[in-house]
Structure formats: structure tokens, C-alpha cells
Write a structure and sequence with these properties.
By secondary structure, the protein is mainly α. It is 50% helix and 0% strand. It has five helices and no strands.
């Protein structure tokens, strides 16, 4: 899957819910690197706007989109020091 062109991956990932992307980012280091890159910011914004009909709050400027999605949709595990 990671051998696919990045633009195709981001197109596919942009249709997923944020919780699904958070789970993908936890699969391995390669997925985490792809999903936490600056290139993925637009994909995260699309996923957050897909969430609950666009009802997810906007991402604050002092946290990454991955960190914000993890905070909102990542479950109840402790995230101290790992969301920024």
C-alpha cells in the first residue's frame, strides 16, 4: 500500500473518518510518517470536515491535525507529550 503514489493515498485517505486515519497512523512507523507529514495536512482537514457532517471543531494553530484528530477521535488512552 505504501508503494502507491502519495497523491493517490491522500485521495483515498481523504474519504476516511479521522478515527480511521488515527488508527492507520498507529499501524507502523511508515504509516505514521506519511500521516504526520506536512503534505498530509489537507487530507486531515478533509477527514475532519467529513466527521459527523462537518461538525468537528477546527484544529487549533498550536497542534498538528494528526494530534487534533487523535485528541478528538483516538480513544481514551493517555496522550501526554505525544499530540504536538
Amino acid at each position: 500500500l505504501l508503494c502507491m503514489p502519495m497523491d493517490i493515498l491522500f485521495e483515498i485517505f481523504g474519504h476516511l473518518q479521522p478515527g480511521d486515519l488515527v488508527n492507520l497512523s498507529r499501524i507502523n512507523k511508515s504509516f505514521h510518517r506519511v500521516l504526520s507529514s506536512k503534505r498530509s495536512a489537507l487530507m486531515w482537514k478533509a477527514a475532519l470536515s467529513n466527521a459527523r457532517g462537518g461538525g468537528a471543531p477546527s484544529c487549533p494553530v498550536d497542534i498538528s491535525e494528526l494530534g487534533w484528530a487523535n485528541l478528538l477521535f483516538g480513544g481514551s488512552s493517555c496522550q501526554v507529550g505525544s499530540i504536538l
